[in-house]
Amino acid sequence: MTSKSSLHADFSRLNNRRILVLICLFVALLISLWLDLLAGPAGLTAQQVFEGLIDPSSLNLRHSIILWDVRIPDALIAVVVGAALGLSGIEMQTILDNPIASPFTLGISSAAILGASIAIILSPVIPFLPSQALTPVLALVGACASAALVLFVVRISSGNRETVILFGVALVFLCEAISFGFYLIADAEALYQIAFWAMGSLTKAGWIEVAIVSAVFCLVFPFSLRQVWLLTLIRGSEEHARSTGVNVAKLRIWVIARSSLLAAFAVCFVGTISFIGLVGPHIARLLLGEDHRMLLPGSALCGALILSIASFLSKILLPGTVVPVGVLTAIIGVPLFLSLLLQNHRRTR
To answer: Residue 75: which of 48, 37, 41, 43 has the closest Cα?
Structure first.
């Protein structure tokens, strides 16, 4: 009895510590969101922003438009896109048992860039469709098409992990090669737009984009939570999961389908956001362990926090210029990823 009580007490303490970590991540996200709302050249003070959030009529028309039509959508799209990529990344890494699995390595981001590039090049010859709508639509089509191809490979390979990862890498190179071919026929203006979109930008997202990505995340997240025990089980051992009656191949199809859907809607509006879906889950795993009840929301919070911080930094690093957020996430993500690799190497020695 004493041993059982001790184990129960240890588990309770561990669980409470993980809950505390989630609370700290959430508080850090709120702080980052607030700093992001304050950043910008308009001269809005913290008091004006606070009063404008409570009562928009307290601001003059110019400041009200800046706060409600520019800063708030920009800050919120960073949070929801980061959360979507973080959740997508952790599910892909778990179900494929591969630490480098992410929306980027499976070709979804590269296919979105290809779709956006086609839209930007074709927009002058399709005058009846505005480029503001055409670009995200074709980016979404490209991302969904690549996701469908990945799912097809999952199905015909009976969910073989190595086959899926290798196909994803091949898809990345294929999409990039086709994109480079389109660059040869693009004019200077189109090339600039493609480069800016490919580096990732939150500045063109509005309330509609925030609502769409948020709706997709809220649709997918409950399905992810329903399978936390299966994901935890398969993380421990795929063979053990099969021995308990889990249909691993079918589970892999469903997880990759919803992860790909999240990633497709996340990148179609803001472009390529590097490393969020890769590094966010690793940070969450270091903080929370392998219990997916905590790991899934933790990964979403880590992704949202990293992208929110990058959004804030993109507005203050170069006065008068908004740095493409994808550049910052790569600069932040590479050192983090290398440090995670070194820590993992030390643990396995």
So the answer is: 37
Query: In the prediction, which pLDDT does 2 show?
Result: 56
The letter for the amino acid at 286 is L
The answer to whether the beta carbons of residues 154 and 252 sit under 8 Å apart is yes
Place of tokens 């957020």: 325
Distance CA 81, CA 212 (A): 11
Retrieve residue 249's tokens: 């191949």
Write out the two tokens for 174.
Answer: 């294929």
For residue 241, give every residue at least 6 positions away whose Cβ sits within 8 Å of its Cβ, in sequence order, or none: 230, 233, 234, 248
Q: Which residue has the tokens 């737009």?
A: 193
Bridge partners (DSSP) of residue 321 are 318
The answer to whether the beta carbons of residues 303 and 87 sit under 8 Å apart is: yes
Task: Record the tokens describing residue 248, joined without a space.
Answer: 């691993």
Note the pLDDT of residue 132. Answer: 66
How many beta carbons lie within 10 A of that of residue 344, not counting itself? 13
For residue 188, give the amino acid letter. Answer: A
> What residues have CB less than 8 Å from 200, skipping those under 6 apart?
270, 271, 272, 273, 274, 324, 325, 326, 327, 329
Rounded to two decimals, the pTM is 0.90
Residues of the chain short of pLDDT 50, as ranges, are: 1
pLDDT at residue 347, as a whole number:
60
Going 5 to 11 to 17 to 22, the CA torsion angle's sign is negative
What are the structural domains, with CATH classification, of the chain? Answer: 2-348 (1.10.3470.10)
